[in-house]
Design a protein that fits this description.
Elements (H helix, E strand, L loop, with lengths): L2 H5 L6 H6 L5 E11 L3 E3 L3 H8 L7 E8 L1 E6 L5 E4 L3 E4 L5 E4 L7 E2 L14 E5 L4 E10 L16 E3 L5 H19 L10 H13 L8 H6 L5 H10 L7 H8 L3 H12 L3 H19 L4 H7 L5 H12 L3 H9 L21
Parallel strand pairs: 1-9, 2-8
Antiparallel strand pairs: 1-10, 2-7, 3-6, 3-10, 4-5, 4-7, 6-11
């Protein structure tokens, strides 16, 4: 498959077509070799953006796990696990920690990151002398509302586990590109490549496969002056006890107007969207973290685990515990996920 093939419009997938109209610029910028035990803390989002593109304040980061296994967390929250072939996305470039399977002492990435300018693609090495995890890192820049940290259309970090298709192709292509550049001493940023852009388009499409109204209407909703502030509140605080009145107040419009706009643009009521968005987040937490079902329920706004389980079963046909058990056993393969990597611990039911 060529880059041109992947960029061709696909009439059957309006969300992908809408994503391809989002202008992004970026690169694969380094390769890393980590040996157990290892843990590091990244720079802040603004520091990372300024380092990679002076004058920029926003950056989308992604990490491709070429071999081994690792976790990532933002703001001291839960650890999201990833294994070989998985893609870790930090859509707002938030400061984060990454580490291996064994416990380690966190250090700042600045202690082993060579100071720019980089004449060739850097190879970072960190850790002790245990099993090795290989990671390829990339970044993208874009001012589209889709990547606005205030809107928070995505979680601060998520993991996509492709089995096959375009995402798996782009993962392999980005890894091969990084290996070639580091082997030959090629320039860090001097070679034009659309690999990161194509990879991100497909990763976002797969991640949002279970999200509510993931079509061109959702992209339009992010720009809608009435819907934007309401969506921002739902995305930032999905656990809050939102009502239509409260959301309308945030948008400074009447309850009836807000309800009308939700139904017209997104095809559902505000509360239906809230519920669907909570279930989308819950499935991600159940499949990439070891949080208990009770903790997941609270993270997405349910005080009672039983009420959360009923809502989840209505959405996906199985209880959260059954979904997680089937997933861990390899029996559940949602569109955006494959079986959990062997390097990462499997969550308990």
């Amino acid at each position: 498959m060529t880059i041109e093939d992947a960029a061709a419009p696909v009439g059957a997938d309006p969300f992908r077509a809408a994503l391809e109209r989002v202008h992004l610029q970026g690169a694969v910028f380094l390769r890393a070799e980590y040996r157990e035990p290892w843990v590091y803390e990244s720079l802040t989002g603004e520091e990372t953006a300024g380092l990679l593109a002076p004058g920029s304040r926003r950056v989308v980061l992604f990490h491709l796990v070429a071999a081994g296994g690792c976790w990532v967390s933002v703001g001291g929250a839960e650890k999201h696990w990833a294994g070989a072939g998985d893609v870790i996305v930090l859509p707002y470039g938030d400061q984060h920690r990454m580490g291996g399977v064994e416990d380690g002492i966190p250090v700042s990435i600045s202690t082993f990151l060579p100071a720019p300018p980089w004449l060739s693609m850097p190879v970072l090495r960190h850790g002790v002398d245990g099993a090795q995890t290989d990671v390829v890192c990339g970044y993208l820049l874009g001012n589209d509302p889709l990547f606005d940290p205030e809107l928070r259309a995505f979680p601060p970090v998520f993991v996509v586990r492709p089995q096959a298709g375009p995402v798996a192709d782009w993962v392999r292509a980005n890894i091969a590109y990084a290996m070639e550049q580091t082997a030959t001493g090629g320039p860090a940023f001097g070679v034009s490549t659309r690999l990161p852009e194509m990879l991100l388009i497909e990763v976002l499409r797969l991640h949002l496969a279970s999200a509510p109204a993931v079509d061109s209407g959702w992209m339009a909703a992010l720009r809608d002056p009435v819907l934007r502030p309401a969506l921002a509140e739902i995305h930032r605080r999905p656990e809050y006890k939102w009502t239509v009145v409260a959301l309308a107040g945030r948008a400074a419009v009447s309850r009836s107007l807000l309800d009308e706009r939700f139904r017209l643009v997104l095809g559902r009521s505000p509360i239906r969207y809230l519920t669907d968005w909570r279930m989308h987040l819950a499935r991600d937490l159940l499949t990439t973290t070891d949080l208990s079902v009770y903790s997941v329920a609270h993270r997405v706004g349910y005080e009672a685990e039983e009420a959360f389980s009923r809502a989840f079963k209505r959405q996906f046909g199985r209880s959260p515990a059954a979904w997680r058990a089937d997933y861990a056993a390899g029996a559940t393969t949602p569109p955006l996920l494959s079986a959990a990597p062997s390097a990462a611990p499997r969550p308990a039911g």
